[in-house]
From TrEMBL:
It comes from Streptosporangium vulgare. InterPro entries: VapC45_PIN-like. Pfam families: PIN_10. Residues 1-78 form the VapC45 PIN like domain. This is VapC45 PIN like domain-containing protein.
Amino acid sequence: MRLLLDENVSRPLHQAIVAFVLGHEIVHLLDLDRWSGTRDENLYPRAVAEGFHVILTNDARQMQRPREVEAIAASGLHRIEYPHKHPGMIGIGLAIATVAAGLPAALNLLTDADGQRLVTLRGIDPTPASRLRIVDPAATPPKYWPKPSQE
């Protein structure tokens, strides 16, 4: 499948996708001549004309804009979104983790799909309490943790 990355897909995420998604052609919109700044309602028909099968985007609001929804529907292209709004390194890490976890499976399913599909790659909770579990073994020793020596 030919996968077009929308211009809102970061370069670090592009590099990660190329590294772990094999067997598909991955193209970033910014690498195509005169595609930068293409309005979404024009992007989908243009992508079809260039032989793309899937567009990956971070624009969750696309599906709330009637003209863009009409263009997506008319194109027949599969649309995959990964809605992330977190800035900086945490945001890039969350985007890479979300896409790495879901994109290969999504592409496998889309390869066999009998029609257009809209896919949302579910996020990974960005709160530290959800990402990390920290144990102080002195206060809460794990099972089999050696007891401190009594002097």
